[in-house]
Design a protein that fits this description.
The chain has 108 residues and is α+β, with helices and mostly antiparallel strands. It is 24% helix and 27% strand. The protein is built from 2 helices and 4 strands.
Length: 108
């Protein structure tokens, strides 16, 4: 599959604020600092599409990308990580709710 283009669509602090783009979405979900954003960049063949860092907790919102391929378009969704990050427990709990809301509310 050839990647034709990759672009940021939106970053949202809540699942209900993420725009509906009418594409199937592939969500990147997992523990903090395991390389979700790096994997997304590798699959999209773009070095700096999704922000990365060696510090856990860089992704703090739902981030939606549109990936155009020779086989059609897809949405890639970068989600905050579960587990260790150098932020307050309260913020980690809000990320957990954010991810759960995305998974339970998003039809794509």
């Amino acid at each position: 599959m050839k990647i034709l283009s990759a672009e940021l669509v939106a970053s949202a602090p809540r699942a209900d604020r993420l725009p509906r783009v009418g594409l199937p979405e592939i969500a990147f979900l997992g523990r903090s600092n395991v390389g979700k954003s790096s994997l997304l960049n590798a699959l999209a063949r773009r070095r700096k599409l999704a922000r990365t860092s060696s510090t856990p907790g860089k992704t703090r919102e739902i981030v939606l990308f549109r990936i155009e391929t020779d086989a059609g378009a897809l949405g890639f969704v970068d989600l905050p990580g579960y587990g260790y990050a150098q932020v307050s427990r309260r913020e980690r709990a809000s990320w957990q709710r954010l991810v759960e809301d995305y998974l339970s509310q998003r039809e794509e």
